[in-house]
Amino acid sequence: MPRGGGLMAPGLRPLLLLAFWMLASSARSPAEANDGGWPRYGPGAPVAVAEEERCTVERRVDLSYAEFMQHYAFSRPVILQGLTDNSRFRVLCSRERLLASFGDSVVRLSTANTYSYRKVDLPFQEYVEQMLHPQDPLSMGNDTLYFFGDNNFTEWASLFRHYSPPPFGLLGTTPAYSFGIAGAGSGVPFHWHGPGFSEVIYGRKRWFLYPPEKTPEFHPNKTTLAWLRDTYPALAPSARPLECTIQAGEVLYFPDRWWHATLNLDTSVFISTFLS
Ligand SMILES: *[C@@H]1O[C@H](CO)[C@@H](O)[C@H](O)[C@H]1NC(C)=O
Ligand SMILES: *[C@@H]1O[C@H](CO)[C@@H](O)[C@H](O)[C@H]1NC(C)=O
Ligand SMILES: *[C@@H]1O[C@H](CO)[C@@H](O)[C@H](O)[C@H]1NC(C)=O
């Protein structure tokens, strides 16, 4: 039976157009399709923060456990690639999926300063829809709320069981997850703790690291964004931190007691595995 546009009932044309439009929009550019619905900079973003000029943390693909232990575990940070595949977890962390599964869950936010004091509880949906805006460059860290850590693992177990942590353990330590979502320009200023890993699921996270014996110059209540703007440009080359921006799917390892500050360059979803 002959078929063609000329023979089609006029009423079918809009339907056909709709089908084409749906096909076209599902074939968007990969970058756009892969943001998980987390807007890159978010509404009302001030000027975007750039990545570092030169990444000074080593990147290693398929690193063996023996090499990890020998060269990094107790001595320096490293960015790991290709060790785990968290594509399934990534799908579950899209904005739409997380809101559908956990919109009503209460999440605990902390202030984004070095010695984070204040905690605020609110429904996840409210955090995502009303508080996930870019960092105000004039705000103080102790006046900025950040969703990271303090996770309710009972309530979120159905999500976290899909996460594959980096397969490297350290003798005498137990891994513990910390999950977070934060706006562009947000971050945690310099602090230190035990060793661990941090993986970016969506967005990019810029890191600044100093060894334990090299206490950085910083104000504990100022944001990382303010530190980058006010302190970083004047640092002598010998006083500069190790730094690098990690991309989705990459994992940064930080050794015990290394100072570090973080800066989310985009709206970011991330998860840490602390070894302590
Ligand atoms: C930082 O802010 C907290 C309260 O938000 C305050 O108690 C503390 O004294 C401040 N620290 C400094 C060094 O100003
Ligand atoms: C934040 O810290 C600054 C300086 O450390 C202090 O002056 C201010 O009162 C603190 N703000 C809040 C909300 O605690
Ligand atoms: C975690 O969530 C469960 C289930 O909703 C709840 O019963 C429990 O009180 C929560 N735990 C904390 C520490 O908030």
UniProtKB/TrEMBL annotation:
It is found in: Cytoplasm; Endoplasmic reticulum lumen. One of its GO terms (molecular function) is cis-regulatory region sequence-specific DNA binding. Keywords: Cytoplasm, Endoplasmic reticulum, Glycoprotein, Signal. One of its GO terms (cellular component) is nucleus. Gene3D superfamilies: Cupin (2.60.120.650). Its main location: cytoplasm. Residues 1-26 form the signal peptide. InterPro entries: Cupin_8, JmjC_dom, JMJD6_ArgDemeth/LysHydrox. Residues 143-276 form the JmjC domain. PANTHER family: ARGININE DEMETHYLASE AND LYSYL-HYDROXYLASE JMJD, JMJC DOMAIN-CONTAINING PROTEIN 8. Oligomer. Dimer. Interacts with PKM; regulates angiogenesis and metabolism. This is JmjC domain-containing protein 8. It comes from Vicugna pacos (Alpaca).
